[in-house]
Amino acid sequence: MKKALITISFFTSAWSFAQNQLHQVLVVNEGYYDYQTNAIEEPVTIGSYNPTTQQYQVVDTLENMRFASDLVIDGNFYFVAADSKIFKMDLNSHQEISSVACPGVRNLAVYQNKLIATRGEYLTTYDSYLHVYNTSDLQLIQAFDTVTGPKWATQNIVIDGNTAYLVVNNAYEWGNEKGIIGQLELTNLSYGNEVDLGPEGKNPDNLVKYGSALYTVNNKDWTGTSISKLDLGTNIPSTVNIANAIAGCGTSALRDDKITYQISMETSLNNFDINGMNNIGPVSGINLNFYELAQEPISGEFYASTTDFFSTGTVFIYDATNTEIHQFAAGVSPGTIVFDIRSAAGLSDEENKAISISPNPTNDFLHFQGKAAKDIVNLTDINGMQVISTTESSVNLTQLPAGIYFVNVNGTSQKVIKL
User: Fold this and answer.
1) Bridge partners of residue 69, in order along the sequence
2) Which of 51, 57, 231, 315 has the most CB within a 10 Å radius?
3) Phi-psi region of 413 (alpha: psi -120 to 50; beta: other; left: phi over 0)
């Protein structure tokens, strides 16, 4: 579902800021499927919120899908994981480009021309819980069986450098929940190096990366919540119990240098300090029961959705002081919120998205897909100072401090990345 962030303010160097903006916010509304009658009462929809006009509209309806679980943007396109299919959509027109059957698809991630998909389904076993597709045509590149890949239902994905980290939680088999982080090496598509988070780190629902560590928010055996840390240097995990009730699905997100989470059925948000690995008190000023949480990477504004799960959904937007600055009506169960960051330099969408950059966010290697050998890639910081210039197809960013950087190719096609 859902890195360090600095809040950008306006600088005298307009070039360094004004060329990047939040173009739209994509919202995946999961809809309402009645499991007793096996009827889709409210369909899955994709919505687009324009932060400039503060207008929201439904841009597509995914017919015959019981639910949807993830959305990722890649260049001019985005991919949606919905029940039994993966959809490829045009980012500007929202027209469906193609789709592929993938029963039980849960979460997605993009690395260069590869789309990684995890799988899991209640009371269902599969011979593969991890698929890799070609992003151009959604052709299956590899399906890992339960010998060469994860043995149980797999969910969240974080890509760092050439590695995809996956949580294996087996959350759909009651009483047999797992707490494992596995690694998919993306250069040769080999899976392994699993780390067990231990008995208190079972059933991870969220996975984020901050600094040199991974963090998971765990629902354990559905009776409590814990947060685990996996140091990527030592591969040693540690876990802290934070509540005797579950946090649920989606109600946790990395917000600056803290994990903000909510216990199921409660109306207060809580902060967890990932540096000290301890709770630091509730979030003041916010008192609603939420379904999804996400932080917008440029302004730092915090998006949080509510729903009654069958008829309504609303997304609230808060500033850094937790003051509500806007809200908009969405569809039923707005469960994934994704930010479309673009250049505002007057370039067309095609020019602006000509080269695909991944992963983003990152604090390791940055890769450029679609770049010609003669193209010059420049990275500048928020003050407009050039920090890297290269003609390579990838660049090592490990020596740069965390923050917001801007990428341009041959002096034009500019994008924002988060480190």
Assistant:
1) none
2) 315
3) beta
158, 307, 373 from 5: Cα distances, Å: 17, 28, 32
User: What is the edge-to-edge ordering of all strands in the sheet holding 180-185?
Assistant: 154-160, 163-168, 180-185, 190-196
Using CA atoms, how far residue 395 sits from 50, 170, 363, in Å, is: 33, 36, 11
Q: What is the mean pLDDT of residues 128-139?
A: 97
Contact between residue 100 and residue 110 where contact means Cβ atoms under 8 Å apart: no
- For the chain, what is the mean pLDDT? 88
CA separation for the pair 259, 1 (Å, rounded) = 13
Q: What's the CATH fold of domain 14-342? A: Methylamine Dehydrogenase; Chain H (2.130.10)
Give 369-375's long-range contacts (Cβ < 8 A, gap of 24+).
369/75, 369/112, 369/113, 369/393, 370/75, 371/409, 375/409, 375/410
Q: What is the dihedral of CA 293, 75, 92, 63, to 10 degrees?
A: -60
Q: Where are the domains of the chain?
A: 14-342, 354-418
- Residue 119 to residue 156: CA distance in whole angstroms: 10
**3 state SS of 14:** helix
DSSP-derived secondary structure for 187-256: TTTEEEEEEE--GGG-SEEEEEEETTEEEEEE-TTTT-EEEEEEETTTTEEEEEEEESS---SS-EEEET
What are the strands of the beta sheet with 334-343, ordered from one edge? 55-62, 44-50, 20-29, 334-343
Check residue 7 and give its pLDDT: 28
And the tokens for 292? 């999804």
| Percent of the chain topping pLDDT 90 | 67
Which pTM was predicted?
A: 0.80
pLDDT digits (tens, 9 = 90+) for 330-342: 999 999 999 998 8
Task: Collapse the DSSP code of 404 into the 3-class scheme (helix H, G, I; strand E, B; otherwise coil) and give the result.
Answer: strand
| Fold topology of 354-418 | Immunoglobulin-like (2.60.40)
List Cβ neighbours of 393 (8 Å cut-off, separation of 6 or more).
367, 368, 369, 371
Q: Is the pLDDT of residue 411 over 80?
A: no
